[in-house]
Amino acid sequence: MSTNDVTKRPSASFQSLLRLLPYAKPFRMHFILVMVLVVIFNGTNVLQPWLVKVAIDRDLSTANPQIHGLVVISALYVGSVVIGVVANYFQILVLQFSGQSIIRTIRLDLFRHIERQSMGFFDTNAIGRLVTNVSSDTETVSQFFTNFFLSMIRDGLSLVMIVVAMFELNVRIASYAMVLIPLLFLISLLFRKQLRQRYQRTRTRLSNIVAFLAENLAGIRIIQIFHQEKRQARHFNVLNTAHREANVAEYQLSVIFNRTFELLGNAAVAAIVWIGGIAVLHHTILFGTLYAFISYIRQFFQPINSITQQWNTLQSSMVAADRIGQVLMVEPTVVDPPQPAVVSDEELEGQVEFRNVSFGYKADRPVLRHIDFTVRPGQLIGVVGATGAGKSSVMSLLTRFYDPNEGQIVIDGMDIRRLSQVDLHRIVGLIQQDVYLFSGTIADNIRIFRQEISDDEVVEAARMVGAHEMISRLPQGYQTMLYGKGANLSMGERQLIAFARIVALNPRILILDEATANLDSQTEELVSQGLQAVSHNRTTLVIAHRLATIRSADLILVLDKGRIVERGTHESLLALGGLYADLHAKSGIEYKPEETVHPMRRS
Amino acid sequence: MRNFLSSRKWAYALSLLSIVISEFVMVQFPNLLGNFTNTLQTHHLSRAVVLHYSFLLLVVGVLYVLLYGFGQLRNGQLGRQFEYELRRRLFEHWESLSTAYFRKRSIGDLLNHALNDVRTVREALSGGLNILTNALFLLTATLIMTFRTVSPKLTLVSMIPLVFLPLFVIWWGPRIRNASRRAQEALSDMADLTEESISAIRLVKATANEHIEAHRFERRVDVIVRRQMSVFRQSAMFQSIIPFLGSISFSIALLYGGYLTITGQIHLGGFVAFTLYLAMIIQPLQQMGFVFNQFQRASASLARLEVLFSEMPDITNPENPVEVDIQGAVTVSLPKFRYPDGDRDALANVSFTAAAGETIGIVGRTGAGKTTLVNLLPRIFDPPAGSVFVDGHDVRTLRLETLREAIAYVPQDGFLFSTTIRENIGFSKENATEEEIIRAAQSASFWNEIEEFPEGLDTVVGERGVSLSGGQKQRAAIARAFLKDAPILILDDSLSAVDMNTEKRIIAAIRELRQGKTTIIIAHRLSAIRHADQILVLDDGTLLEQGTHEELLAHSGIYASMVALQEGEEALA
């Protein structure tokens, strides 16, 4: 839908289309075949008037006409039509298959390319825009490889063939007909600029309508509460009217343009009858030749019309190609090393070190400063601090969603930048605050569609985190379809699924961003039990929002404005009497009764 | 649709008539050429005759272009007028529907209707109608001409294959339509997956699942390719059969017409004219197939639009509304409330009373039902009868305009339109003076920042303008509500993104501005509601605690623990 409201960028050019040309390369044999089929189809088209001419001159208008020749001609005629139709049928299939295969490859590349990007890319690119790139821009570009290509070949070839046929028939009359060519060019030239301007104006105004509608439908509640329906309707009317006017103006011009062409065509026929008629009168040509000329002149205009209509296709393909190109041009900022280090799961200890790490999403705005800590294999550490203190950034760096500006992050003595991202993400697991669920079954959501994780393993994982009962209660159990991103599950249930997912994937190191969302007490109980199961036997970093969760952590880091201001165990920090102690004192009254909160324990 | 057509019937009659006449002019073309051939055959041809015929041809050509062009132009304009009116009505219709309706639908879906369905109908109504009229009357005119001037026998015999054309179209058309619907479904499947996958990109990356996602994506893309190819197979067949039938006709004309010519039953001119006639109608017949498809699609679009239009606003004025001048007393006595599409109660046993002029604070966790509760007051969602009262009247018995006129609302996200700040703040009052707007902005602690924008109040917000911060948006929305100066003001967690000092200033402004007027404040930060006459603590849809700040603290319940927790966090920040 939104491809239609392309706001044209000045950089949109033929260049961007050419850059996508390599995608067509594997199909060059197909394109050649299409050309051959087009030649056959066009050949039969040009042949048909000629056959009629032969019939008229040889069989019908002679002194003793003969039926036999007529039968032969008719048979040839039918034969040529059949060949033409069959050629056309296969041409459509071959061409469309190539077109579809090309978009398929572009789509796959584009999708893989997008998924390969680092997190910074997704911070700046709206999802809707990327979806449009993948779904409709590719569709638009494929028209270049199908409709546009076909028109150039078929219509271009038609023109050439018609011209050749005319010269074959009679050079003098054919040369007269050639006067048409500069005329046609002149007319096209006169109209082209205006046509494009009006076309784009209509597009822009339509996209204004779209933007207005999208916004107002989203804010319909505000309009209704403030009782401004009439006013917004008036606003809409202004845009709607502007679009109608542009639309009508565009249409008018295109009708005038097309009718001018037709007028020229009709005038050309009259002229041919005049010139050809005189020639017949002087016996320089036969009548059948004149007949063929009339047919050819009429045929002559079809390809020209069709080519001019491809103009819009070319325009929109260029814009779409440009947008695709801009996505494809972005290189991920986080890249794998040329020769990633090899890690074996057996030898993996799971020691995590941050060595003097500084980081900012923007260079001039540091979020983390000189972060330095070590987590020994199997330990659990808690990170606490106010919103914006940098807790989540610590997590994003360890997963290499971003690279630090300074310092090193090291797992088992190896800089994580020496690992491939696939390996790193196998080693380091992450449970986020928001649980993402895919449309699919619960089982698929736990195994995140990985075939190598069996149903038994899925059930086992769910059992371990205490999700099995909840899932079994659902009507279809593990095969229950989650729709609308898990709208049919409660917050707590979704968290349990996320835990089960991690257990199924079994990473050595786990980062847990504790959910801030408040849960009802029953599920809170379930979730905290799940948490324990998940952290069991793993090096675990917990970003805590409730102090109770990390009371028995091996190490607690207190972050403030991007720095570690205090570190130690719960007891030592309390004894220190600093920020942590302060915090703890003030949160003395727990929101939930103490008993229901299960502090995470070392096992 | 019918209304539109009947109100424009004369305009349509004129343009269609012009197309019809143009076709009767057009069919003179082969006739002239046939006569010309006959003159030539009978050796009566002279320079003057040649000139005469070519001049006549020119006249026919020019006349046809003018008449047809006129009809085409008029129809196109009418179609676009229709498109315009349909969109206008659609928007006004949507404005009348309640939030419950929009909750069920995606905006993308609605936009699709407003853009593509409307356009499809218009295309059928202008372009399609042109071609259909053109084709039908060209056919009629041709038949008349060939019957009269050439040979009824030849016409009947060679037109036989063409009889199958409409039959084929009717049989084959739906197959193409089905196939393309399935292809379309595959396309939106892929788009959905893309969106889902990109939304979950953190999860995908953190689990090194990119290749699995790519694989899932690939499967969707493959389905598209398969289904698209099926569409192309069907339509390639369609596009082949039609010209094929036409050509069979032509061959019969060639053979049988030739035979008639040889045996002297018709003149060579008649034969020539007849072949030209056939050539002339093949293209319109072919187009008729496309038009048929177009009409099929348009009728589907029209059906979808009719479904949209048939949706009745579910929150409407009562039949005999109570006329009151609302003072602002609010009483809620709600046994339970469930969303129309919900499967559990969103609120249960919530009762409270606020006298006009009181300030009510509402606190509770996300999902506790705070927003739901305040949404019942302006009937964004309809409360059950006899459960929500303003000034002692059930809100459902009041005139909707009166009720909403009396309520100013600041939504959670501070929704703004992408116009100027001036228009946003003055949204409730179209002719608000500059002074009023500035005062509202000042009260919302927004004016200082507005003054710093180069364009001041005329700064455009959003997409093509300055993008405001979350706090600025909230304050603009608060200023908008202040300007409305209604007896009841609702702030739905509208201070979440402003810093503490600003919050204090705004709360102070509220206390001053809202003296004697009812104010309902939902807040996460408890400092915002500390001074409320009454604080409601909601949890899981029920009212757990109720009282003043001091009363609740003394009660040492949930509210008290929330206060303690927040003070702790603030110390950290």
From TrEMBL, chain A:
Stored SMART domains: AAA
Source organism, top-level taxon: Bacteria
UniProt keyword annotation of Flavoprotein present: no
Occurrences of domain ABC transmembrane type-1 (ranges): 32-316
Membrane protein topology class: Multi-pass membrane protein
Primary subcellular site in the record, as a coarse category: membrane
Residues annotated as domain ABC transporter: 352-586
Compartments, as annotated in UniProt: Cell membrane
PANTHER family per the UniProt record, alphabetical: ATP-BINDING CASSETTE SUB-FAMILY B MEMBER 10, MITOCHONDRIAL, ATP-DEPENDENT PERMEASE MDL1, MITOCHONDRIAL
Name of the featured protein: ABC transporter
Organism: Alicyclobacillus ferrooxydans
